[in-house]
Amino acid sequence: GTFSTYLMSLLFGILHTSCLYCIASATLSWTLAVSAWLGGAVPETTVEKKAQAVQSSVAGLSTATIAALLLFLSVNVNDPSTMAYAGTNPGISSQLVASAASSSKPLEPQAPPPITQHSSERSLALSQNLKSLDAKMFGAFWCSHCYDQKQTFGFEAMQNIPYVECSNDGVNSQTPLCKSKDVPGYPTWEIGGKLFPGEMELDELEDIVKDLTNNNRK
């Protein structure tokens, strides 16, 4: 019961969120504690022993209350990273409550892994053709297929192709643009105003460029 009081102080006093399972657990703990007291948990031998049992219980509750107050004063309750963490995890466990409360640093934006392959003459020529069609590649820093697509083109060719980061946690994130374009997955190519989802080989992209170029000439 004492520890449940401490956890409820974290939940409501610091994270300012609710957790049905946590509240149910705390209620059950206090119900068991009260039942134990009323059922004879306190020895009925002497008044002195009863007093000692009461003092122990009060001391435990006081310790939990003081610990909760100290934690409350040491955590910035207006910190957006703590609030965001709590808001997205309604079923957070007691271990994660403590972890979230002690963390006050927001995560830094993540960059995609560097492109290590050099471009071939073919990929360079294709990148120039894609550039003429105002092509873009939508992706996410954590997407392995996006990285493979970049490696297929090579570093030099990808300098001609704008890369749009769709992940909220990515560097230079453009999530609103990705949503407005209804990007279905990663990677997705936008070529000539049309979306082409999926990782593609160079010959597939060459066919798309050829078809769009011929259509524009008609």
Quick gist of this model?
This protein has 218 residues and is α+β, with helices and mostly antiparallel strands. Helices cover 58% and strands 7% of the residues.
The helix count comes to: 10
Helix content: 55-70%
Q: Which radius of gyration do the C-alpha atoms yield?
A: 30 Å
Main sheet properties: 4 strands, mixed
Q: What's the end-to-end separation, in Å?
A: 78 Å
Strand line-up of the largest beta sheet: 2-1-3-4
Structural class computed from helices and strand pairing: alpha+beta
Number of strands: 4
Principal-axis shape: rod-shaped
Could you tell me the mean pLDDT?
76
Order of helices and strands: HHHHHHEHHEHEEH
Strand content: 5-15%
Detail the poorly predicted runs: 76-104
Assembly state: single chain
Can you walk through the features of this model?
- The chain has helices at residues 2-13, 20-41, 47-74, 80-87, 94-102, 121-132, 144-153, 155-158, 175-180, 202-217; strands at residues 136-139, 163-165, 188-191, 194-197.
- A hairpin with a 2-residue loop joins strand 3 (188-191) and strand 4.
- It has 218 residues and is α+β, with helices and mostly antiparallel strands.
- The protein has 10 helices and 4 strands.
- Helices cover 58% and strands 7% of the residues.
- It has a 4-stranded mixed β-sheet, with helices on one face.
- 21% of the residues are buried.
